[in-house]
Amino acid sequence: MTTRIDPRDLPGRPCSLAAALKIVGDRWALPAIREVMLGNHRFRQIAKNTGAPTDRLAARLKALVENGVLERRPLPDDGQRQGYYLTRAGRELADVTSALMSWGDRWAVTSPPVRMRHKDHDLVVHTVCGVCGDTVRNTDVQREDITPGWTAAGFEEPARS
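-> structure tokens emitted (161 positions)
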């Protein structure tokens, strides 16, 4: 990525989630990334399919390029124009967009507008630990705060003698 954020520079709890949302948490960022994931690389396609105001979309795409999520390069069918393409960091947002779509299907819309399929059936995903291969459940995961002074309850000032 081009720009990295020191999590201690963010207000509140140092957190990679807050840093990530600073990059992709705006209203138009993930829909724009979705469109590029779907193969829509032209600005007009992205604008049409997101419904974003063009000035806001242009600013958001520029920021996503500056932050290393997207890159601009010539379109294969029109070498004089450039399109938007995912970088490695952008491609790694696929799990995030999939998880948000699943959450949205369940909690945000009256009925899912898209169905994800795997071979001949609906896709059902679960998390598997890449080290041991076990299925991961929330109850199996423990949080370890490594930023000095921070615990799950918040910042704790060191005791004074």
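The helical segments are 16-24, 29-37, 43-50, 54-66, 88-91, 94-107.
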